[in-house]
Amino acid sequence: MGKKNKKKRVGVVYSTNPDFDYDYKQPNDQEELPPNQQRLRVLLDRKQRGGKEVTLVTGFQGPVDQLKEIGKMLKTKCGVGGSAKDGEILVQGDHRDRVVELLKKEGFSDTKKSGG
After folding, report:
1. Domain 29-114 in CATH: superfamily?
2. pLDDT beneath 50, residues of the chain
3. Please, what sign has the CA dihedral across residues 54, 44, 69, 98?
4. Mean pLDDT across the chain, nearest whole number?
5. For the chain, which residues make up each domain, given as ranges?
6. Residue 71's pLDDT is what?
7. Distances, alpha carbon 40 to alpha carbons 12, 61, 69, in Å
8. Measuring CA to CA, how many Å separate 60 from each of 6, 27, 92, 108?
C-alpha cells in the first residue's frame, strides 16, 4: 500500500472487523445554489489584520472550486490580492462598492453591502 492511500484514510489506525473497508470518498461539497438564490454579504474587515482593511464576502454556499473561481475573478477585476477559503472571499483593500457591482453582474442578485 503506497503513501497515497494512507493519507486518504486519516483517522483509522486499525480495525478488528474482518469486513472493514476504508472509505476513500472525499466529503461532498455543499450543495450548489443558483447565484440568484444566494445571500452574500460584503463587508469591510480590519480585525486581526494589523489595521489593514480587507473586503470580506461571506455567505457563499457551493463547491470550493466555484468559490475560488469567483474569488479569482474579484481579485483580477479589482487589481489586488486576496484569498478564497472557508466559505469566504477576502479582497485586499476597501473595494466594497466594486465587489457588490461585480457580484450583481455575475447574477448574485441578493448581495448586501454592510459595515465599515
Report:
1. SUI1-like domain (3.30.780.10)
2. 1, 6, 29
3. negative
4. 82
5. 29-114
6. 95
7. 37, 9, 16
8. 32, 18, 18, 10
